[in-house]
Amino acid sequence: FEPNESLFVIFDQQNPEIGANQAMGTGTAKNWIETTPILNIAGDWKVQFDPAFGGPAQPINFLSLTDWSHNSDERIRYYSGTATYQNSFNWGQNKSSGEILWLEIGSFANMAEVRLNGKSCGICWTPPFRVRIDQALKQGENVLEIAVTNTWANRIKGDHDTKTAKPVTATTAPYRLEGKPLLPAGLFGPVTISRTR
Fold first, then answer.
1. What percentage of the chain's residues is helix, strand, coil (to nearest 5)?
2. Cα 49 to chain centroid, rounded
3. Integer distance in angstroms from the first to the last C-alpha of the chain?
4. Residue 172 backbone class (left: φ over 0; alpha: ψ -120 to 50; beta: rest)
5. Cis before residue 110, ω within 30 degrees of 0?
6. Could you give the CA distance from residue 64 to residue 62 in angstroms, rounded to a whole number?
7. What is the CB neighbour count within 10 angstroms for residue 156?
8. How far apart are CA 65 and CA 80, in angstroms?
9. Sign of the C-alpha dihedral, residues 39, 45, 46, 52?
10. What is the DSSP letter of 159?
11. By C-alpha distance, which of 117, 116, 119, 59 is closest to 83?
């Protein structure tokens, strides 16, 4: 288990080897993994928004990972949908026997899919925000993409507050947005590669 993780365990009552009277084992070992960070992926992030949802048509360079809702550009501040972050890094370490390599993506809102060198490594929306990258990682230059998707709340508020001639959203529900802040959105990081043995 990861910290705060839960699972359903279903016992087959037809199996005589598993039953309520069977003695339960005890142990003191941790039942979650602990990772060791080995590489921080920083620097320029190229972020592609979707212009069909009101975002910029051209990729935007983010010198650091920041919250969209604090951006000075209204196309980003009120953006709702999926935006893809792209960065590259060099990998020159050899993987030792029994080692597992992970990409930990830190904080974000609200869902994120990780692709490394064009291969999907998984989707995160609940902790731990980490995906295994062994099969996609290669020696030399690697291209990392993290597609982050937020909710529609900020776009609805943006259409309401800015009174644009061509709103992106349409709803029959009444607005109750006055005085309410925008929700956090985007990738905040830090983005790191870590290992477990």
1. 10, 35, 55
2. 16
3. 16
4. alpha
5. yes
6. 5
7. 20
8. 17
9. positive
10. H
11. 59
**Residues 51, 156: Cα–Cα separation, whole Å:** 16
From residue 161, alpha-carbon distances to 18, 42, 65, 158, 164 in Å are 60, 34, 26, 5, 8
State the Cα–Cα distance between residues 64 and 42, nearest whole angstrom: 7
User: pTM value?
Assistant: 0.83
Instruction: Write out the chain's pLDDT in tens, 197 residues.
Output: 777 778 888 887 766 555 455 555 566 777 778 899 999 998 899 999 999 999 999 999 999 999 999 999 999 999 999 999 999 999 988 777 778 999 999 999 999 999 999 999 999 999 889 999 999 999 999 999 999 999 999 999 888 888 767 888 887 776 777 788 999 999 999 999 999 88
Instruction: Give residue 15's identity as a one-letter amino acid code.
Output: N
